[in-house]
Amino acid sequence: MSSRPPLPPSPPPVEIRAWRDRNALLADRAQALEALVKGYLGAGRLGLLWLWAALLALGWSLVGAALTSLTDVLTAIVGGLLLLLGLGVMVPAGLAVGFGLRKDRRIRQLLCQWAELDRDPVLDRNLRRPGLSLAWLVPSVVLCGAGLAVCLVLPATAEPGHDTYALVVYGMGLGLICWLTGLVGVAKAAAYRRWVQRSLVGAGAGAGAGAGARAR
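RE: above sequence
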């Protein structure tokens, strides 16, 4: 059983909202937004993303070892086992990344829904979290750049007869994993900053506050 808390539900529809006053609404809004921000940009999510990326790289390394070992019957058998083992590591890791991206999309929807209910200047200022966004952005940019460099430099510098196609494909695969992992981190940090500007700073938040007040 997972120990992670579930995501907050969507705010109730306007016709069935039953907050006794604005303070009760703001309290529920604050609790929901804090949980959603932690679920989206928490240090655990960054570590989990890099863990799955490391497992993908490990699986691809096993696949690469299988591709470079096809020289005779014995090594072909060993290579086949390595290939199966590599795929057995990569497939679950890839699925986990996909589920994580789907969860991120749901969290972004919930962030917008809860932020539109009203405004809370103190909470909204604390939710901007520029340091947390940078903690995602900076290493993700570095990883993305390193992966892209590997994908471009390795095939350009490969020497025919010295570097095999399997070795080049293996290196480019690792570079692609790094690039995609970094791209996910950059996209998440950028999406969070857009949400902050649109829902907590921009004029749209004021309109949402007015709508929340009318609903009550």
